[in-house]
């Protein structure tokens, strides 16, 4: 049995800079890996089936873990059946990339178990078929992201702590993208500009999430008492960077919804995995 962590991420900002002819949106963002992790256990079996335990709410055919296994099968030199157990700590539909991370973890682990022999960049390209966030977790490094999220420039970020709140709602990414008031023409910028003044960088989905989901608005108003609250991805999670003046215990205690205290990661714990 192989037991490995599957980390979450925050979008430190998220700008929509344009729209492609195929309908996909161009964006700019910073992916920050954090130490909030799901845990995944891989049990090779003698059957040829891939079974997943711990995600009963997701149909197998739509499960990104299952899909990741399927796209790797043609490359397998030593294919076995699998039972995959998952301990979910990353909330679903939260903008923290839990599903994408689970898919990337599956690609990384099965590439070794099945002796596929694929390089990291090849795994990232396969992962892009599953979702725009999957490559960042395959590479396991913090990055400045462009394109639909697949063009990555790896960056060094300062070590930080964050408080994350998970409002009691499930945000529809499709609904947010369909809104006519979504800003789709934010001027492209550079990482050096972010480094000079990160407070100028926000999330184009924030006003929509706050207006369509009162729970998100409540969580952001709560965190805004202590600093500048931000939405991660298309939500629903919101977060704040911790400073020395904050009473962390009090903020967590009186949170209007589920809260998490997390640390930034300089790289994924999977980056040096050998099985």
From TrEMBL:
Gene3D superfamilies in UniProt: 3.30.230.10, GHMP kinase, C-terminal domain
EC number: 2.7.1.148
Pathway note: Isoprenoid biosynthesis; isopentenyl diphosphate biosynthesis via DXP pathway; isopentenyl diphosphate from 1-deoxy-D-xylulose 5-phosphate: step 3/6
A Pfam entry, by short name: GHMP_kinases_N
Active site, UniProt feature: 9, 133
InterPro entries reported for this sequence: GHMP_kinase_C_dom, GHMP_kinase_C_sf, GHMP_kinase_N_dom, IspE, Ribosomal_Su5_D2-typ_SF, Ribsml_uS5_D2-typ_fold_subgr
Catalytic class of the enzyme: transferase
Catalysed reactions, as listed in the record: 4-CDP-2-C-methyl-D-erythritol + ATP = 4-CDP-2-C-methyl-D-erythritol 2-phosphate + ADP + H(+)
Keyword Calcium attributed: no
Keyword Nucleotide-binding attributed: yes
Positions bound to ATP: 91-101
Segments forming domain GHMP kinase C-terminal: 205-252
Keyword terms of this UniProt record: ATP-binding, Isoprene biosynthesis, Kinase, Nucleotide-binding, Transferase
GO biological process: isopentenyl diphosphate biosynthetic process, methylerythritol 4-phosphate pathway; terpenoid biosynthetic process
Residue ranges occupied by any GHMP kinase N-terminal domain in the UniProt entry: 63-141
GO molecular function: 4-(cytidine 5'-diphospho)-2-C-methyl-D-erythritol kinase activity; ATP binding
Domain of life of the source: Bacteria
Family membership: Belongs to the GHMP kinase family. IspE subfamily.
Role played: Catalyzes the phosphorylation of the position 2 hydroxy group of 4-diphosphocytidyl-2C-methyl-D-erythritol.
Name this protein carries in UniProt: 4-diphosphocytidyl-2-C-methyl-D-erythritol kinase
Species this chain originates from: Acinetobacter equi
The organism's taxonomic lineage, starting at the top: Bacteria, Pseudomonadati, Pseudomonadota, Gammaproteobacteria, Moraxellales
């Amino acid at each position: 049995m192989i037991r490995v962590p599957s980390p979450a991420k925050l979008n430190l900002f998220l700008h929509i800079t344009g729209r492609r002819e195929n309908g996909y949106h161009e964006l700019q963002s910073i992916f920050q890996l954090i130490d909030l992790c799901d845990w995944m256990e891989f049990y090779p079996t003698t059957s040829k089936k891939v079974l997943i335990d711990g995600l009963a709410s997701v149909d197998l055919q739509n499960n990104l873990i299952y899909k990741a296994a399927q796209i790797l099968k043609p490359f397998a030199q030593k294919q076995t059946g699998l039972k995959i157990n998952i301990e979910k700590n990353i909330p679903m539909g939260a903008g923290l990339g839990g599903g994408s991370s689970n898919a990337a973890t599956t690609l990384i682990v099965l590439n070794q178990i099945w002796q596929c022999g694929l390089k990291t960049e090849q795994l990232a390209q396969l992962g892009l078929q599953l979702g725009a966030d999957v490559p960042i977790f395959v590479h396991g490094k913090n990055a400045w992201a462009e394109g639909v999220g697949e063009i990555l420039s790896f960056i060094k970020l300062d070590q930080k702590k964050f408080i994350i709140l998970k409002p009691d709602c499930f945000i529809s990414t499709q609904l947010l993208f369909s809104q006519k008031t979504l800003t789709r023409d934010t001027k492209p910028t550079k990482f050096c500009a972010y480094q000079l003044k990160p407070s100028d960088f926000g999330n184009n989905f924030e006003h929509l999430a706050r207006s369509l989901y009162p729970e998100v608005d409540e969580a952001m108003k709560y965190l805004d008492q202590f600093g500048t609250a931000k939405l991660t991805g298309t939500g629903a999670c919101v977060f704040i960077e911790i400073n020395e003046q904050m009473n962390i215990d009090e903020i967590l205690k009186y949170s209007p919804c589920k809260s998490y205290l997390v640390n930034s990661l300089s790289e994924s714990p999977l980056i040096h995995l050998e099985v």
